[in-house]
Protein: Dimethylmenaquinone methyltransferase
Organism: Pseudomonas fragi
Amino acid sequence: MSTLALPLNYHERARILGSSTLYEASHLACAVDSGIRPIWDGAFIAAPAYPLQCAPGDNLALHLALEQVPRGSVLVVGTGNFIAGYWGEVLTVAAQAAGVVGLVIDGGVRDIAALKARRFPVFARGISVRGTVKASATSVGQAFNFNGAEVAPGDLLVADDDGVIIIPKAHAARTFAEGESRADKEAHMMQALTEGRSTLELMNLTHWRHRP
């Protein structure tokens, strides 16, 4: 397998491991600002990223992206943290028809009931009834820094209730391998905890027991 390919069965492996374990296993600055949260509980995304940037209050780049995005991708949208209704039910229907599997945006979205009903996973900074214009497109399909994490086309984005991470595709296979090793160690630790051992003992912290 090429180091630039995503690991086999990455979607289900990411769902089992979760964003927190994969973040720790990556040893990278790949966490997105924690203010970007799921619009509905239980939303989950693990997919190749397709980045784009919108001008504040302008969603033209989203419409352009839907004609170019590879099927199976998640849209990663920078807006400069401007809260407006960049996305709603119309774009959701268009995205699902185009094979887009989710949206992560640092701006706002609307038509929340419809997004929930369609089970389209969206992670956003806010919700806003305010609409947008269609006058300019900052970039479509180009790498940029998305709220603390670099994103380029094809990087692996994982988003769940804990948060959003973006793993460079060259590091994805290693991150999954280390994440599975970490999860195995934690499973053994939790078994030991149920048997009465302490976290101080298991984490080699017993030297702190007698400190003030």
